[in-house]
TrEMBL record:
Function text: Carrier protein involved in proton-driven auxin influx. Mediates the formation of auxin gradient from developing leaves (site of auxin biosynthesis) to tips by contributing to the loading of auxin in vascular tissues and facilitating acropetal (base to tip) auxin transport within inner tissues of the root apex, and basipetal (tip to base) auxin transport within outer tissues of the root apex. May be involved in lateral roots and nodules formation.
Membrane topology: Multi-pass membrane protein
Lineage of producing organism: Eukaryota, Viridiplantae, Streptophyta, Embryophyta, Tracheophyta
GO biological process, one term: amino acid transport
GO molecular function, one term: symporter activity
Subcellular location: Cell membrane; Endomembrane system
Residues in Amino acid transporter transmembrane domain copies: 94-505
Recorded GO CC terms: endomembrane system; plasma membrane
Keywords: Amino-acid transport, Auxin signaling pathway, Cell membrane, Membrane, Symport, Transmembrane, Transmembrane helix, Transport
InterPro entries: AA_transpt_TM
UniProt name for this protein: Solute carrier family 32
Keyword Membrane carried by entry: yes
Region Disordered: start-end pairs: 1-42
Species the sequence originates in: Vigna unguiculata (Cowpea)
C-alpha cells in the first residue's frame, strides 16, 4: 500500500462548515480557512469531545486524542492575505513576550514625555496628577481591548490598526476614520524625531566641544541631515522583528535619560520666584483654551496604540498558545516602566521649575537653568541618550509607513520587493520627513494639537470596536461603559484640537524643544 504524506493523513477538506488545519510557512504564513456561518465558532477539536469518544475503543480513542493534541498545536486556522509574507510587519512571526515589551516600551516613552511638566504648569498639582492618572488607566484599558480584538473573529488576524477599524466600522468608513490619524502618528512622529534628534545632537556637540571650541559648527539644518542619514542607515533592517535589538536600546535609553532628567532637576536649586499656581490669562475663555491644550499634551504623551496590533502580529499564534497571552504579558511590563518614567518626569519637573517651565519641556529647562551647575559629562551623556532613543523610536514608528509602501508595490506587481526597492522606499520616506521638518521647524511645538487629532486612536476607537465586534448585551454595563468612553474620547479630541490651534495662533508657541538661552 502506497504511503501517503503526513499532511494528507491529517488534512480535512474545507467546506462552508469545516475548515482545513492551519499550515505554517517559513515566514509564518497561515493557510486560509472558511469562516463559520454559525454564531458559535468552530475549533479544530470541537468534534472530538468526551461524549464523542466515550463509545470508542481504547486504540481508536488514543489515536483521536493524539490527533486532537496535534490539531491544538497546529493552531486555530487563521486566514491571512498571502502577500503578508512579503511585508515588513508580518514577514517574520517569531516574536515573543520579550520583543513585545521592548517594542511597546520603545514606542511608549520618548520626547513627548519631556513636555508633561508644561501641561502641569497650566493645570496645577491637583488637576495635573488627576488627568495624568485617568489618562494612563484609560489608555491601558484600550490597549487591552486591542490585544483581545487581534483575533476576535475566528480564522482572522487583524495585523494592522486600519484592518481592525475596517472590520468594526466597515471598509470605507474604517479607512476614513483610522488612516489619517495612524499615518499622522507614524509620519508626524518621525518628522518630530528628526527635529528633536538633530537639535539634541547639536547641543551634544556644543557641550563636548566646550566654550573654547574653534571648529566651524554645523548649522541646525545640517544636524537634521546627519540625524536623518543615521536613521536611514538603521532603517535598512528588513522587518519589525529584526529591530527588536534597537527597540531594546531605545527602551533602556528612554528609562535612563528619563530618570536622569528628573533626578538632576530636583537635585538642583529651584529658580527664584517659583510658583505652582496654574498659568492663566485675563480672559476666562483664554484660560480654558490653555487648559484644553494642556490636556492635549497629556493625551499626546500616551502613544503607541497605533502599533499594538502590528507588534502582536509578529508573534506566532496557536489554539493552545494564542498571541494575546505573550503580547499582554509584555505590554504589562512595558507600561509599568512607562509609568515609572512619565509620572516622575511630570511631578518632578513641575516641582523643580513650577510655572517657569519653558514650552520646550524639562530638558530645555535643565539646559537653560542648570547648564553651568551640572558637569559637562553628565549633560553630554543625557543628550546622547536622547539621540539614541530618537534613532530607535524612528525605526518602529516608520515601520507602518514602510509596510504601506511595500503593500502598494506588491499588490501591483504580485511579487516581493527586492532589496533595492525596499531600500529606495526607506530612503524616500526618510528624506521626505527631513524636508517636512525643515519646512515646518515648529512641528515639535504642536504637542497639544497632535494629541487632540490622534486621541481617538488611543482613547475612543478601541471602545467602539469592542462594542461593534464583540457585541456585548445591549444596555449592559459593558455596553454603556464602552459607548460612554468612546464618545468622551471623541469629545475630548475636538476640544483638545481647538485648544491646540488656539495656543498656536494666540500665544505663538512656535518654539523648538531644545532652544538654549
Amino acid at each position: 500500500m502506497e504511503e501517503r504524506p503526513e499532511t494528507e493523513l491529517i488534512s480535512i477538506p474545507a467546506t462552508p462548515r469545516v475548515s482545513t488545519p492551519e499550515i505554517l510557512t517559513p515566514s509564518g504564513q497561515r493557510s486560509p480557512r472558511a469562516a463559520s456561518k454559525e454564531g458559535k465558532s468552530w475549533t479544530p477539536t470541537s468534534f472530538i469531545s468526551p461524549r464523542f469518544l466515550s463509545p470508542i475503543g481504547t486504540p481508536m480513542k488514543r489515536v483521536l486524542v493524539n490527533m486532537k493534541g496535534y490539531l491544538e498545536e497546529v493552531g486555530h486556522l487563521t486566514k491571512l492575505n498571502p502577500q503578508d509574507a512579503w511585508l515588513p510587519i508580518t514577514e517574520s512571526r517569531n516574536g515573543n513576550a520579550h520583543y513585545a515589551a521592548f517594542h511597546n516600551l520603545n514606542a511608549g516613552v520618548g520626547f513627548q514625555a519631556l513636555v508633561l511638566p508644561v501641561a502641569f504648569a497650566y493645570l496645577g498639582w491637583s488637576w495635573g496628577i488627576l488627568s495624568l492618572t485617568i489618562a494612563y488607566c484609560w489608555q491601558l484599558y484600550t490597549l487591552w481591548i486591542l490585544v483581545q480584538l487581534h483575533e476576535a473573529v475566528p480564522g482572522k488576524r487583524y495585523n494592522r490598526y486600519v484592518e481592525l477599524a475596517q472590520a468594526a466600522f466597515g471598509e470605507r468608513l474604517g479607512v476614513w476614520l483610522a488612516l489619517f490619524p495612524t499615518v499622522y502618528l507614524s509620519a508626524g512622529t518621525a518628522t518630530a524625531l528628526i527635529l528633536i534628534g538633530g537639535e539634541t545632537m547639536k547641543l551634544f556637540f556644543q557641550i563636548v566641544c566646550g566654550p573654547t571650541c574653534t571648529s566651524n559648527p554645523l548649522t541646525t539644518v545640517e544636524w537634521y541631515l546627519v540625524f536623518t542619514s543615521l536613521s536611514i542607515v538603521l532603517s535598512q533592517l528588513p522587518n519589525l522583528n529584526s529591530i527588536a535589538g534597537l527597540s531594546l536600546i531605545g527602551a533602556v535609553t528612554a528609562i535612563t535619560y528619563s530618570t536622569m532628567v528628573w533626578i538632576l532637576s530636583v537635585s538642583q536649586q529651584r529658580p527664584p520666584s517659583i510658583s505652582y499656581e496654574p498659568l492663566s490669562l485675563s480672559q476666562p475663555s483664554a484660560s480654558v483654551f490653555l487648559a484644553m491644550n494642556a490636556l492635549g499634551i497629556i493625551a499626546f504623551s500616551f502613544r503607541g496604540h497605533n502599533l499594538a496590533l502590528e507588534i502582536q502580529s509578529t508573534m506566532p499564534s496557536t489554539f493552545k498558545h494564542p498571541a494575546r497571552v505573550p503580547m499582554w504579558k509584555g505590554a504589562k511590563v512595558a507600561y509599568f516602566f512607562i509609568a515609572m518614567c512619565l509620572f516622575p518626569i511630570a511631578i518632578g519637573g513641575f516641582w523643580a521649575y513650577g510655572n517657569q517651565m519653558p514650552p520646550g519641556g524639562i530638558l530645555t529647562a535643565l539646559y537653560a537653568f542648570h547648564s553651568h551647575d551640572i558637569s559637562r559629562g553628565i549633560l553630554a551623556l543625557t543628550f546622547l541618550l536622547v539621540v539614541f532613543n530618537c534613532l530607535s523610536s524612528f525605526q518602529i514608528y516608520s515601520m507602518p509607513a514602510f509596510d504601506s509602501f511595500e503593500a502598494g508595490y506588491t499588490s501591483r506587481t504580485n511579487r516581493p520587493c527586492s532589496i533595492w526597492v525596499r531600500s529606495g522606499f526607506r530612503v524616500f520616506f526618510g528624506f521626505v520627513s527631513f524636508f517636512i521638518g525643515v519646512a515646518l521647524p515648529f512641528l515639535s511645538s504642536l504637542a497639544g494639537l497632535l494629541g487632540g487629532l490622534t486621541l481617538p486612536v488611543t482613547f475612543a476607537y478601541p471602545c467602539f470596536m469592542w462594542v461593534l465586534i464583540k457585541q456585548p448585551p445591549k444596555y449592559s454595563f459593558n455596553w454603556y461603559f464602552n459607548w460612554i468612553l468612546g464618545w468622551l474620547g471623541v469629545g475630548f479630541s475636538l476640544a483638545f484640537s481647538i485648544g491646540g490651534i488656539w495656543s498656536m495662533v494666540n500665544d505663538g508657541l512656535k518654539l523648538k524643544f531644545f532652544k538654549p538661552n
